[in-house]
Fold this protein.
Amino acid sequence: MEAVLQVERLTKTYPGNSAPSLKNAGFALKKGEIAGVIGPSGAGKSTLLRCINRLIEASDGAVFIEGDEITGASQKQVKNIRRRVGMIFQHYNLVGRLTVMQNVMHGRLGYMSTVDGILGRYTEEDKRHALELLRKTGLETMIYHRAGELSGGQKQRVGIVRALMQEPSILLCDEPIASLDPASALVVMEMIRSLCRERNIACLVNLHQVDVAKKFCDRIIGMHGGGIVYDGPSWELQDSVIEKIYGKPIDQLMLGGEGHGGR
Ligand SMILES: Nc1ncnc2c1ncn2[C@@H]1O[C@H](COP(=O)(O)OP(=O)(O)O)[C@@H](O)[C@H]1O
Ligand SMILES: [Mg+2]
């Protein structure tokens, strides 16, 4: 079966840096597969996600979304390919003064003309779909609230609904729960997992807690110093591999609260 996401030899050296922040990353994701990217701060997790979506330009290598190469594509082609790529951010990226419904409908903008987008001319079908998703995520009573007034967990649920309004084939999530309390974090991760499963959406999610990644992801991609040092099933992730990824003995990881357990 064709991969939803194919990453080949992806490399990124930021201007002014001598060493690459992402080195020769390669892997493929299938439909409905949920992979957690783990690694210490600075390992290159965000760089990987940003290069995939071309929020930044890779220095070398290639990325294919459902067989279409996004690296090297024209602006117009990128816009087209990006419709199929939903993004979830640590700080939600909502427009705080707009309502929940308005934020959610922004997920449709990639499919509309600029004028229709500005005038908010969404189809009835899109509105019905938005309401269905808002109900599913327990946000139906918040529809007319300003996004800025919501709790962190509610904001992230709005972010998820907005991304799903794109009808993406892949979801890229950069530390989606890093700003949430533990209870909201679990709700958000469960929601990402169940919606991706239900809709057969592939998901690549950057996480800094190993335990969360093991609990919610089928597969773990471990990064250290810009390179992928582990790629395999989450149940096969040994303590020795976790130590290699984080570059620290496991007991120190637990004491420090970074990566393993805690927080
Ligand atoms: N815009 C930038 N310019 C220069 N260096 C950067 C930039 N963004 C990230 N880096 C460097 O790239 C490395 C990887 O960063 P990042 O991808 O943010 O890691 P992670 O998300 O795993 O914490 C770090 O060493 C970081 O300092
Ligand atoms: Mg990051």
Summary: Residues 45-46, 175 surround magnesium ion (ligand 2) (CB under 6 Å). DSSP finds ten helices and ten strands in the chain. Residues 182-199 form the longest helix (18 residues). The two ends are 38 Å apart (CA to CA).
